[in-house]
Amino acid sequence: MIGRNDPCWCGSGQKWKKCHYPRLPTGPALSKQYLTAYGIVLKTPEQIEKIRHACQVTARILDQLCQHAKEGVTTLELDELSRELHKKANATPAPLGYGSPPYPKSICTSLNEVICHGIPDKRPLQEGDILNIDVSCIVDGFFGDCSRMVSIGKISEEKQRVIDVSLQCLNLSIKMCKPGNEVWQIGDTIEKHARAHKCSVVNQFVGHGVGIAFHEAPEIPHHYNDLTIPFAPGMTFTIEPMINAGVRDGVIDPKDGWTVRTKDGKPTAQWEHTILITETGHEILTLI
Ligand code: MF3
Ligand code: CO
After folding, report:
1. Which of 252, 275, 246 is nearest to 162 (CA)?
2. What are phi and psi of 91, to 5 degrees?
3. For 60, what's the count of Cα atoms within 13 Å in the CB-facing half-sphere?
4. Beta-bridge partners for 7
């Protein structure tokens, strides 16, 4: 098998990649191919500008909420604050009324053994809690999505481990985001790192395309998978690994239809960014 750096078969003396190597389509041809083959919309520079702005607004709201998450504060108060912050920024909370049953609040607040989609309520934050705050905004018709962990006072070693490992999983997997790599490499990177640190990776929920809709193609699994979709400039999607101290399985609360808890009650953590694939690599759109 001839390699990209081997001399071209045509005898030109040039490397194959510089000579008769088959070229990927670019521009409109590439966009059409991605839409047809994968249902993925590669964003135009104009769309990217709007998504970048929506992501910055989202990240700033998340940052402010994290600063307010202290012992004694309820997650409902954080939700109320988020409404004010959305209003000030001319943003609409994407979760409010989303899905079925309609999600009842503006942000997700997932505490301790709650994997994701925790609903803000009247329980005050206590010493030893770990909390994920997840903010998704619509600004001028475009979407941003990110989440972070906050710890309240002194937390257990097990909780610190899931917080650290999930952040490392996110950051390591972001490094894989560049043209030439493929979607499966994200799950591969995350699951290898999690397992090496005695953690498990939730496989019931995935990252997702985001930008012109809340959830668009492709799915971005955080677990081992075989999605051979090559990253292409203009792709915008989230990576949001949910990492558990115990078993990977989650159970949806039958009463509210949203809150997902670890099956074994052990702690879990998640961090999320929205990523843009560029010509040379990536941009973390929700980094402030
Ligand atoms: N980042 C989360 C997701 O993409 C936000 C969930 S909001 C909810 O699933 F409304 F779906 F709960
Ligand atoms: Co998301």
Report:
1. 246
2. -115, 150
3. 14
4. 15
* CA torsion, ordered 205, 240, 79, 262, to nearest 10 deg: 50
**Pick from 239, 139, 122, 265: which is nearest to 187 by CA?**
239
204 C-alpha vs ligand 1 centroid, how far in Å? 13
Q: 149, 153, 190, 142: which is closest to 44 by C-alpha?
A: 142
Residue whose CB lies within 8 A of the most ligand 1 atoms, among 115, 117, 239, for a mutation test: 117
Phi then psi for residue 274, to 5 deg, are -100, 130
Phi, psi angles (nearest 5°) of residue 25: -65, 155
Q: Could you tell me the distance, in angstroms and rounded to a whole number, from the CA of residue 146 to the centre of ligand 2?
A: 7
Give the integer Cα–Cα distance in Å for 132 and 147.
Answer: 7
Q: By the 8 A CB rule, do 220 and 238 touch?
A: yes
Token pair 């994920």 in the structure block, residue: 132
Question: Structural domains in the chain?
Answer: 42-284 (3.90.230.10)
| Ligand 1 pocket, residue 272 CB under 6 Å | yes
**pLDDT above 80 for 200:** yes
pLDDT at 247 over 90: yes
| First CA to last CA distance, the chain | 46
210 and 145 Cβ atoms separated by less than 8 Å: yes
pTM tops 0.90: yes
pLDDT tens digits, one per residue of 54-80: 999 999 999 999 999 999 999 999 999
The DSSP annotation for 168-192 comes to: HHHHHHHTT-SBTBBTHHHHHHHHH
Residues 53, 67: Cα–Cα separation, whole Å: 22
Q: What residue type is assigned to position 126 of the chain?
A: Q
Q: Which two tokens stand for residue 15?
A: 């490397």
Q: How many angstroms separate the CA atoms of 43 and 58, rounded?
A: 19
Alpha carbons 262 and 67: distance in angstroms, whole number: 26
